[in-house]
Give the backbone structure.
Amino acid sequence: MDFFMDSDMYLRNVSVDNIIFGYHDKELKVLLLRPAGLDKWTVTGGYIKKTESIEQAACRITLLRTGLNGLFFNQFQTFGNPKRAIDPEFTSAYLSKIMGSPIPKDYWIFDYFVSIGFYTLTDFSQVEPKKGELEAECVWWPIKELPKMMFDHEMQIREALNALRIHIAHYPIGYELLPKKFTMPEIHNLYETILGKSLDDRNFSKRLLATGILVKLDERKKIGPHRSPFLYEFDQNLYDEKLKNGVDLVF
Amino acid sequence: MDFFMDSDMYLRNVSVDNIIFGYHDKELKVLLLRPAGLDKWTVTGGYIKKTESIEQAACRITLLRTGLNGLFFNQFQTFGNPKRAIDPEFTSAYLSKIMGSPIPKDYWIFDYFVSIGFYTLTDFSQVEPKKGELEAECVWWPIKELPKMMFDHEMQIREALNALRIHIAHYPIGYELLPKKFTMPEIHNLYETILGKSLDDRNFSKRLLATGILVKLDERKKIGPHRSPFLYEFDQNLYDEKLKNGVDLVF
């Protein structure tokens, strides 16, 4: 509970919110927390130590929640207006109940906080979420059926998803989300799921192949007696170069 | 000088930096300040009042510097790491000189500040910059010949310019930067100047016309005895719609 005790460790009036998206097998989810005793949910986030950068704060907080290290975070938007202040009455009552001692209403955590929004995308089947001491649950939620959210967090998820969709039109994805060898339908599903719309088969593979990041293998995946699509893998060098310089994949 | 006196008015540890780009007749500039007694420059920026949103802070600070109201700001990146703290020794000596009384080294403005970067684009020929009390100069500088910059401000300008270049591939520009009726070479110059590269004439006009935002008029501009290009204007409705929903203008 050190962040309630030691306000001197942290920056005032500015915090980090992490929208952690997870993809696996045609499903897009987001990692949410439910504070103990409440039936509303939040995204993962926290305060910034005076000794760390905002990116380090995002990584530290994510490691705490997911055990995952080395995720790549994208900033998508910073949120800041006086309405973002937590309701001190409500939160003080809630925190007193959890922690056993009353929190003064002028305590620093009740100020108006500017929040720097980051998002990342990982394979949710590889991540066992960890709840913190103040939380009842930490769960992967399907994007399509979000529960009741606290603060402006539903808007944050919407904005992060928009940013992710724009991002995948300009940078390759899939490396950590697909098996090493994958079929065209598998990577097609990945793009369709994130974009939330269906993409014409032939147009999709034509455009994706035109980027050069895929290598068609002389090998097929056996799905059924009449279905055995070719396997592909990423051209590591070209994939890395496109990660730096971008692709043009507007579908 | 109220922001030095009244730290209670402002958020701690978080501020706004505005990269104000100006375009006119094939020139791209940025608005810079030179603090009195120094030969380094900064972008315009300032602290956030507890009663205002970060966007309101960006607008208030810009109005102060330029007299311009109602500019549209885009967030492009938030910068935050412990190295951003101002050197208290240097700044205290400098401020003491200007203000006549010493500033304690543990004063709030010397903390590590997270800075929210905004950019905007306006017609520099319409704006007479105003210097503040602590500044020697406030000037439009050509992007191509930036002077020696303080802090991480040169990087901020570079990142803002990248963001502006990506932005104009997805959203129409020109409405406040060109005459009401303009020629294809005039809007071509605008795009070339901002993108910092030359664009093939025919390809440019073909792609721009395909967006539908231009209306070709039955009217020509007389430039010389053998040059009288057609005039165009923006289709206001389509322009506004594309401002909301985007265009695809990768050149």
